[in-house]
Specification:
heterotetramer; A: TIM Barrel; eight-stranded parallel beta sheet; four-stranded antiparallel beta sheet; 10 helices; 16 strands; 33% helix; B: alpha/beta; Rossmann fold; 2 domains; seven-stranded antiparallel beta sheet; seven-stranded mixed beta sheet; binds flavin-adenine dinucleotide; binds flavin mononucleotide; binds FE2/S2 (inorganic) cluster
Chain lengths: 307, 253, 307, 253
């Protein structure tokens, strides 16, 4: 039997398979390189990168929750200049690198792009308009369609590379934001970022996280993520990278069938460092067993069967 | 390729009420102070791995010593000989040996776990070791004979006086800080470490402490486990930059 | 030692303790009566009741998810007239009965109230403006502040009994909705209802639920619920009944410390039919152990300690 | 007060690859066709209880027979003698005995589980019982001797002919529907039940089937497990109005 074709094309970039680690959960790749050959990934999405170095939030930054976790990292990163080196090193692995771009203003997003745009290593930008842990406005971008359209339009003018807009789930109608990003010129969308949550330590009688609130990720959020991927892929024409609670091939297949063209895996890397390559294999096995020649055949399949 | 192990459980012993010693088949070449990230459940609850220090490690054995404090460690304690344990490691920094001829080692409660490995290494290196072991009570002074056998000077402190001196362990250790040309090593609750750091600083001893933090990835990727470090703009990660830090780096205000 | 005072007052109603089953998870009480003495509850919130009998959604209506479940019951209920009997029967137990009121229009909510208002058994109404499983508009009420304020104002005119407004978490800013309900004349708020989610069966390649989407509940949603309770109790003066993922006293204490004056327990009843009385006892034990004379002392405690 | 039990596991047997028989200490006075809701995990994953029919029940024993199909049943299968099982029950409706002198009982696969209880009751009531047992292959015809011992007429059908007749079990049972003045009882996969219902209707036999559905509460409170029922405006709940229904009520189109 021929092995199924796993390639997908997102925003003009061809990926060898539809599986990538999610931003912030895989550093710049170096930490997971000892566990498996990174060339088994469809792409690598690196940590949220800002123009200037960013210290992030004070600790505690983590809390475990039922079926998931809260994080309030607050975009700790070495800044775009230092990130150049890490990105270039990563590229040696020949896997497309997607740079997650963060900022507190349109100008700051633009700065990151300008500092990185000459790097051949950068295959695309993922514009994080949805980080719930940055107080100065990160969330604001993600919740107002007009602001989103304007930001995307502005960044569209700053680079020829593909722009993937990463959406916040903490909104009443994610399809409105998705359409705004599409109108602004986005090449693709990523969803979902984390749900805004919190935890309280009843012995210390105070919030667990120094930042008060944090972003909820992991299996717990999968049903919400899947619903939003279904809704958004019905509302826009551009491809969607689906994520939120994926911890293996069965979850990934749900997202693909809901309409995602590719998937990203975040928190599950922490439980199982091999989750990404195992998911690639699991998807391939499913396709082979069920007689699909290409992963593209199952994208949105649950919708087609849904009258 | 590296670091992900599935080791068979050889022995699961209750060494004191609420404390377990787990012996696994297979060595992972860990250094004193390093830890492993243990997967306690196949399900997503609890979701994260649990960090446990390497207590003892040979070519074909890995031994963990842990306290059952919550659901994760309870699940670990429920695992039986013959079952397989999924773990990542060895992870993190280790206790460095120095050129000082002697060592003062201070353990608070289950903080003793990684120090066993260290005491072995110090012994092997021919150091003169004074070990101060503090706990709430006699029952929580784990594996006393085994620790005692590794060191020249062994002292105990308990909160209730049920064994050794009724004192906090740092109080008991203070004279050694003053008199010995020693490197200081410590693991235990945070207030104890802070006091050890203060004493070491006061007497001018170089000092290494092992910190705890809530971890997620355990490998440096998530930036969740950070602590502020003296003179550094960026926070440092307990899981890869630590858990062992120079005391002055992390206790500085 | 004196046992701690567990009484709380919500919307003028005195409850013997702050724990009640959540609407839709406890029927009209009869199913759980064989398991424990219902008088151990602070109140009983009954199934969402509509003016006319309602068949609800076709099956399948349930899907298990990581740390939780999806439901798409669609408000199956016998209608307000038939509910009168069940409510009266329940009242024999002497525990305040809160009737969860649902509808597709302001008039329908009003009808339910008119059909029940003479019943002494009804201690208060919980107005469900947030059911994600009713297509004809249930959600719409819950997502627009002006509509919410208007609806509450109208219902305020229809009854002298307390009105508790139950909010949807599927919004960008729940505090805006909460303030609107308060302005409209709400006596208290309930939150959260379920998060909108879905699941796909990858073998059958179609959504699991006949209704496509369903409401996510259970431990998985606790961090989101807790965050919203914290936010809302900072934004309004009226008391809040907190719920979402509570499965025992430790969870309930988190909600109380976040600012909730009482808590409701939904899906956890399915796993542990004794969860409500056990939670009452666990709260009492915690208060006694930590030297609190009354549960009211810990309401919002994590906020006070939070500078 | 009622219905919530913590029973000690006496025996956990693998009766065929992927099939377990679990014997618990303590009787719960269940009727044939009723089920229990088993808590398979102390954690929140899996979140819901798992419904398992009462296979056999005496004053001091409860026996379950189940197939390991997913995570919940795998967790159940991992429980060992000596551990305690938390379950609710007995729940749901039961198979009614009628005034017919004979009974035709049709089992498909693990659907045989609750029918064991029924065969005992029918035997006790002095009915003439014909039991038709279908499965994919010989290995999945569980506890054949025990079933055979309870009935006058015992027949087997397998998909692959590895035991009994190579046929679907309803085909094998058809002559009995035609010739006997019997009440029909069935449990098994939905297409099989539908065919049993059709045959019973055709031959004018009264017929009872046991349905499955995804449950949550198991006690009638959540309205999650419903099926449409002939002539009823409201859906009915599998967990309290069923799982045993008159076939004509639930297979009507
Ligand atoms: C690098 C490192 C090495 C460690 N080595 C050991 C060891 O050798 N032996 C050992 O017994 N323990 C060790 N620990 C601590 C151990 O990881 C925790 O006790 C364990 O994760 C608790 O898991 P749980 O699910 O049982 O408890 P949880 O249910 O998660 O928590 C139970 C209680 O313990 C507290 N708690 C949880 N994690 C920690 C923590 N990391 N530090 C302090 N309090 C915590 C919680 O706040 C809660 O009050 C180490 C921790 C780190 C970071
Ligand atoms: C009233 C009743 C009585 C039952 N009695 C028995 C019994 O005596 N013995 C026995 O082996 N099983 C019985 N079942 C079925 C049993 O409950 C399921 O097999 C079990 O819940 C599956 O749990 P799991 O976690 O192992 O599988 P999951 O991981 O939940 O699912 C694994 C696979 O099984 C399928 N599945 C899950 N639940 C059901 C279901 N209820 N019906 C059909 N397919 C399902 C899923 O779609 C999935 O493909 C009964 C079910 C009901 C409703
Ligand atoms: C520790 C951590 C850090 C994260 N950092 C970022 C980030 O820098 N930029 C970003 O867009 N998303 C970030 N995310 C969100 C993830 O990329 C992902 O969208 C989310 O976690 C949902 O996926 P998951 O459930 O698989 O983790 C972070 C998530 C986690 C858990
Ligand atoms: C099966 C089911 C039915 C529900 N029906 C209703 C309802 O009729 N009206 C309502 O306001 N909320 C309803 N809810 C929502 C719950 O009352 C509660 O707000 C939600 O489930 C969150 O709490 P939990 O996580 O403890 O379940 C229902 C929830 C479930 C699980
Ligand atoms: S736990 Fe992830 S960086 Fe330390
Ligand atoms: S499972 Fe809740 S009503 Fe049947």
């Amino acid at each position: 039997m021929l092995s199924p074709d796993l390639t997908v094309k997102i925003a003009g970039v061809v990926l060898a398979n539809p599986v990538m680690p999610a931003s912030g959960c895989f550093g710049y790749g170096e930490e997971y390189a000892p566990f498996f050959d990174l060339r088994r990934l469809g792409a690598i999405v690196v940590k949220g990168t800002t123009a200037e170095p960013c210290a992030g939030n004070p600790p505690p930054r983590l809390a475990e929750t039922p079926g998931g976790m809260l994080n309030a990292i607050g975009l700790q990163n070495p800044g775009a200049v230092a990130a150049r080196e890490k990105i270039s090193a990563l590229w040696q692995s020949s896997v497309p690198v997607i740079v997650n771009v963060s900022g507190h203003s349109a100008a700051q997003y633009r700065d990151v792009i300008e500092l990185l745009d000459d790097l051949a290593a950068v295959a695309a930008y993922e514009i994080n308009i949805s980080c719930p842990n940055v107080k100065a406005g990160g969330m604001a971008f993600g919740t107002d369609p007009a602001v989103v359209a304007g930001l995307v339009r502005e960044l569209r003018g700053a680079t020829k590379k593909p722009l993937i807009i990463k959406l916040s789930p903490n909104v009443t109608d994610i399809t409105a934001i998705a359409r705004a990003a599409e109108e602004g010129g986005a090449d693709a969308l990523s969803l979902i970022n984390t749900l805004l949550g919190m935890a309280i330590d009843i012995e210390r009688r105070r919030p667990v996280l120094a930042n008060l609130t944090g972003g909820l990720s992991g299996p717990a959020i999968k049903p919400v993520a899947l619903r939003m991927v279904w809704q958004v892929t019905s509302a826009v024409e551009i491809p969607v990278i689906g994520m939120g609670g994926i911890s293996g091939a069965r979850d990934a297949l749900e997202f693909l069938m809901a309409g995602a063209s590719a998937v990203a895996i975040g928190a599950a890397n922490f439980t199982n460092p091999l989750v990404c390559p195992e998911t690639v294999e699991g998807i391939s096995d499913y396709l082979a067993e069920h007689g699909f020649a290409s992963v593209k055949e199952i994208v949105g399949l649950a919708k087609k069967e849904w009258s | 390729m590296l670091k992900l192990h599935k080791l068979k459980i050889i022995k699961q012993e209750l060494v004191a009420p609420g404390y377990q010693r787990l012996t696994l088949a297979g060595g992972i070449a860990a250094l004193a102070g390093q830890f492993v990230q243990v997967r306690v459940s196949e399900t997503c609850d609890p979701f994260l791995r649990r960090p446990i220090s390497v207590h003892h490690c040979t070519e074909d054995r890995l031994v963990l010593l842990y306290r059952t404090v919550g659901r994760g460690t309870a699940l670990l304690a429920a695992k039986k000989a013959g079952e397989t344990l999924d773990l990542l490691g060895p992870l993190g920094s280790s206790f460095p040996l120095t050129d000082r001829p002697s060592a003062v080692v201070v353990a608070g409660g289950i903080g003793a776990a990684p120090l066993y490995c260290l005491l072995q290494a110090l012994k092997q290196a021919g150091k003169q070791v004074s070990f101060f072991y503090g706990a709430r009570n006699q029952a929580e002074l784990l594996l006393r004979d085994e620790y005692r056998a590794l060191v020249a000077n062994y002292s105990e402190a308990t909160d209730d006086g049920s064994a050794g001196t009724r004192a906090v362990v740092t109080q008991l250790a203070t004279p050694a800080f003053a008199s010995l040309d020693a490197t200081v090593y410590a693991c235990g609750p945070s207030p104890m470490l802070r006091e050890v750091a203060r004493l070491a600083d006061y007497y001018g001893r170089s000092c290494f402490v092992s910190l705890e933090a809530q971890l997620a990835c355990g490998v440096g990727a998530c930036l969740g486990c950070v602590v502020p470090v003296k003179g550094q703009e960026q926070y440092r990660r307990v899981c890869v930059d630590g858990p062992v830090f120079a005391a002055g780096e992390v206790f500085f205000c």
